[in-house]
Amino acid sequence: MAASDVDELTQDWDPADPATQADYPAAHAQVRQRTPVAWCGRWGGFYTLMRYDDVVQASRDPETFTATRMTVIPSSPRKGLPRLPLQKDPPESNRFRKGLNPFFKENRIGALEPQLVALADRLMADLKAAPAAADFSGGFAQPFTQGTLGLLLGLDPDEALEIGRLSHAYVEAVQGEDLETAGRLSREVDGFAIRLVADRLRQPRDPGTDIVSGLAATRPEGGPYTDEELAGMVRLMLIGGHVVPRNFLCSVAWHMATHPGHVDLLRRDPEAWKPFIEELLRFYPANQALVRVATRDTSLSGVAIPEGCPVALNFLSANRDEAVFENAMEFVPDRSPNRHVAFGIGPHMCLGVALAKAQTRIVLAALLGCDGLAVVGTPTRAKWTEFGITALTLDLRARA
Residue 147: which H helix or E strand, with range? Predict the structure, then answer.
């Protein structure tokens, strides 16, 4: 049975339904109890894995659930540069991950922290200087994540702003199913990555600090990376390293502004920071889901999944699975253990774990240094397949 043979009217859930979009976690909880492997007839039809154990099993089984055919739904344009290593399965993906790993280790990220702290301090000072409401998303989260990406890739400020503009417009086009615009923007991002690689190959920088120069100097199994492979690795970072972190940091700021007791907790207890950050990651994973495709007829939780059917791994739902997390729908600051899958799990686990945690520490410190912290107006929330807040306005003044 092909995926398209399943009647759209029998669908178990719809991530684009306004009622679902209004509260994704609550919608997931209902579906997770009723139909944990849930069918949706949109976008050609796909299953969503809602339970933690199913998400983990599929994530660790790339032979059955491959990333080589599709990674998001609705599908983004796949012509042009490959997104490496995301669109490769082991063992092919290992070649790229081994080259990238040194640049995302804790010691490498630690070396960047003083520059990231200085950037955060400057951006927060600008927000505090605002006479009233401050645009946290546009005035802090966006330039902070752009600046981080610029430091990682050695981008000039204008280059970082340009790729930030392209990446946001690209994601909006994909989510709006405007594939013509998404395709055009994707080609522009490809062109940016290709030009960046050509520049570094022509004028190499310090391979210990510049990712592209470092990757070009690497000698992985199978021979040096080709120009296209280098550009493909850059291409993935240009989108994944900016849009998703921005949404997460906006969610962090919203949480602190709406939970003053947690502000007090972090101010008085330095030991609370580490488990608190892990709980933020569990509760607000910015990637709601990534997609794989079944390579053969298979089943999960008693549901038959036909060969060729897209399968969404719902990390947000898995992170609130009552079978794994006690009081799963509640934010528990000192939760331990905390086996969240905010970064995925298995061979495609996100490389940016240390970077994300460093960014979170820095942003929390910047927020705690404000005289006041309150939400102004109604935030704009991300839609499938992202999660979190995309636009947030704060009042940083002390309360009278």
Answer: helix 142-153
